[in-house]
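Weekly puzzle thread! Below is a chain. First person to post its structure in token form gets bragging rights.
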Amino acid sequence: MAATTERALVRHLARAISPETEIEICSGQQAIDRDDALIEKVAAFPPGASCIRIWENHNCLVTTRRIARRAAFAEAVAASVQSGWPVYVRSSGGSTVIHRPGILNISLAKAAGADTVQPETSYDALLLMLRDGLQKLGIEPSIGAIKGAYCDGTYNLCLNGRKIAGTASRIVRRKQQTVYLCHASIAVYGSPDRDISLISTFEQNMGLDHIYVPSSHTTLIELAGF
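Winning reply:
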């Protein structure tokens, strides 16, 4: 069970990012699908409007549609389920990630009207929000790729050269306008070593041979000294 300090930091970070947004405690595929529902909701908004959700999921792995098409996917899922970690599929890109208490998810959907949104600019609003929130806690993150990190990307949030959050985005056309959703998963507390072990085992069971380095990851509570 998480310590009181750990849970307090999750709440504190959520308030720093968006004071009016309550943390949703979600479960399984339904939690993932709510992001797709958020896109449809925002599609009915006027251009420039946005909507945010902040949420935690129960223990699971979350992978992509591309990976779910692999020949050995069903067998790898069965093995992961047997170990206590069900696997669900999201519509955004990237690769397999971990969801659990201590991983705080932030999803921001925005209506862009007739504008064309490039993938690299779809991250701007969320990254600004996250950096502002972390700065309120006295933390100055950097943005960039981290060698050896799982689901690595150009728009990771990092502290001292280690990844604390990954991001992914999805851009669609709905109701004659562009709508995009950008998502981040921030590691507030927990064990990156265990996270990497779970992801590596799942991927190896599908014949993937990615090598991840535990020291490429950290948690907010570990590195920021809370």
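Puzzle host: Confirmed. Bonus trivia for everyone else. The radius of gyration is 17 Å.
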